[in-house]
Write a structure and sequence with these properties.
globular
């Protein structure tokens, strides 16, 4: 992989991690369309460090409040504890459990599906079909999810767990973590912006461990000369960070005005074009 390719892949990761069109789906299909070297699952998960840092920067004030509330609990300063912050922390932890468990159980199996050269055609079909099916759900989301909408502060742990289960499906490329959590959030009654914000926040623990796992795999892979190629990984990380931050800002502003239909149309078109070109 060249520096230019790493920058290109970092841009894709940064933009599509938070715009609900599937970063893994784009990183699976676009290199094939352009006859680029297929990035490994370890490299893709390493790029998540960039988008993770973007999340930490964007939500730094909220995260500092959460941390402050935890410190007050430890210090037993009950008079100053913000119960809404504690509930949000609890919700994030509860929502992270399903994806964490399933990730540990299934990640290697799923990785073998996508990284095995013998499964190239299967991986393409699975990714493109996931893009299309999720696109259809996006188009009809407003008609399907008609519950009265509420803000993030009113989210219960039960609903947080349901959203966490939905997040687990993002293990399959083409689904989109931000997309599936947006749909699940709206399904339980969150408004669009709150659903997006909770999806972003709850992805922090899972994204951290996924990125850490990818980094460990890269270090353990003896075929990689890290001394000569570290710049490729750092450039990809920094690019995904910058464009990830821009994507978060864009999505929050966009969802205040519009729903998911536009992304649904894009996903369907991208999935169909991918099948036509690659099969």
């Amino acid at each position: 992989m060249t520096i230019i390719e790493s920058i290109f892949l970092g841009i894709i990761q940064g933009l599509t991690e938070f715009i609900p069109v599937s970063s893994s789906g784009h990183l699976e299909l676009i290199p094939k369309m352009l006859n680029m070297n297929q990035p490994s699952t370890s490299y893709i998960t390493f790029l998540h460090f960039g988008t993770l840092i973007a999340l930490l920067i964007y939500y730094r004030k909220k995260l500092i409040k959460y941390l402050s509330s935890l410190v007050k609990v430890v210090n037993k300063d009950n008079r100053k504890i913000d119960n809404d912050n504690l509930q949000s922390i609890k919700n994030i932890i509860v929502a992270s459990i399903p994806a964490g468990i399933l990730g540990l159980l299934l990640s290697k199996t799923i990785e073998n599906i996508y990284d095995n050269p013998d499964n190239t055609r299967l991986a393409t079909v699975l990714t493109a079909v996931a893009m299309i099916l999720m696109g259809i759900l996006f188009i009809f989301a407003n008609k399907i999810f008609t519950k009265k909408k509420f803000d993030l502060e009113k989210l219960t742990s039960k609903y947080a767990f349901i959203i966490g289960v939905a997040q687990s499906f993002a293990l399959f490329r083409g689904v989109s973590r931000s997309g599936i959590t947006l749909l699940a959030g709206q399904a339980v009654g969150l408004n669009r912006v709150s659903a997006a914000e909770f999806g972003f926040l709850m992805s922090i623990p899972v994204t951290f461990f996924a990125a850490l796992s990818g980094t460990i795999d890269i270090v353990r892979n003896e075929s990689l000369d890290l001394a000569n190629n570290y710049s490729i990984y750092i450039v990809g990380l920094l690019t995904s960070l910058i464009f990830g931050y821009l994507a978060i800002n864009f999505m929050i502003s966009f969802l205040k005005k519009r729903g998911l239909q536009d992304f649904g149309v894009y996903r369907i078109a991208f999935g169909i074009i991918s099948l036509l070109i690659l099969l």
